[in-house]
Amino acid sequence: MSPELISILVLVVVFVIATTRSVNMGALAFAAAFGVGGLVADLDADGIFAGFPGDLFVVLVGVTYLFAIARANGTTDWLVHAAVRLVRGRVALIPWVMFALTGALTAIGAVSPAAVAIVAPIALSFATRYGISPLLMGAMVVHGAQAGGFSPISIYGSIVNGLVARENLPGNELVLFLASLAANVVIAGVVFVVCGGLKLWAQGAVDDGGSPAPDTPTLSPEETTLTPPRIATLTSLLALVIAVLVFDLDAGLTAITLAVILSTAWPEDSRKATTQIAWPTVLLICGVLTYVGVLEEMGTITWAGEGVGGIGIPLLAALLLCYIGALVSAFASSVGIMGALIPLAVPFLQQGEIGAIGMVAALAVSATVVDVSPFSTNGALVLAAAPDVDRERFFRQLMVYGGVVVAVVPAAAWLVMVVPGWG
């Protein structure tokens, strides 16, 4: 049995044990990385830890720390009230406001995880207060980020268009952007309906003073008053946005720094904040991504991609590449996967049987819509940002939803964008 196949089978075993024995999957994945990396791939500790997501670790800790302080001093309650006033009490519009906000942020140049890190804690706090499904709100935030993620001036769009130009393939920046936008709007609409969005309309509206419709929590006057700690926290959140979007600073390090400043000024509000950092989620995500890093070090992902690329039926190869992009991207960098798969598609794209523009768009959609997976950066941020929820249950919901997206979207993208032969 080849080392690559062994590494894939071990990953399956990790999932099975974590599901049936309720063991933290991250801890299992660390053990698997040690076993497979050391015994099968002959990697030393440096090689095993090469895939440890240090940047994601800092983002998860920093953002959840900062927003734990914001929850403790009532800033998130104030933001929720402001959001209700913005939509004139129509709670059902808030998921779409969050979708549009993250989409706008990524469209003008924000990296998708940075936009999600900024918006998700506010969106999930709103969902908790008003009884909205956290899966609905989290999915709207992530799909919003991906909806704007391939604009011509966005990070993802610039990278993919650059790859297409480097490989001398025909490209269309507008088609790429509109394909991702349309796909995510459609998916968001389906999620909105399935996860109870229509029932929100039936609940009516809360008035601007905070008097809600029946069965909706009421905001007290204390929750709608700006206090010095809340003003400082709002200033910190604005500083986080500017630091990330304008100065391109690391979101995690910036968030931790701002949280420390707030903790020093108002220790009574932030005394318990460190205990609210989503440590089990941090262990889960970092462990799984470390094992995925071992797979990359071993060449397992390249091995699978090259095997598919060698298939003599271009349409079938295109479908399988879309599925590989979706499956691997659920655990790893979306742009990194596209960077690996687009060159693999070049040989059969040059044959002229498959349209390059449609194929690139299908790969882009397949590799990014799965970012709702709790193992991806965006999904992990959503999971970590949800306050007062059963995280194990929410994790399972995100995992099941991510699995549905992986199963359905690549085939749909292939059917709509590749089969007609666009480009």
From TrEMBL:
Source lineage: Bacteria, Bacillati, Actinomycetota, Actinomycetes, Kitasatosporales
Transmembrane helix as a keyword of this entry, yes or no, is: yes
Instruction: Note whether Transmembrane occurs among the keywords.
Output: yes
Which ranges carry the Dicarboxylate carrier MatC N-terminal domain? Answer: 1-149
The UniProt keyword set, sorted, is: Membrane, Transmembrane, Transmembrane helix
Annotated TM spans: 47-70, 91-124, 144-164, 176-202, 237-265, 277-295, 301-323, 356-386, 398-422
Source species, domain of life? Bacteria
What is the name attached to this protein's record? Dicarboxylate carrier MatC N-terminal domain-containing protein
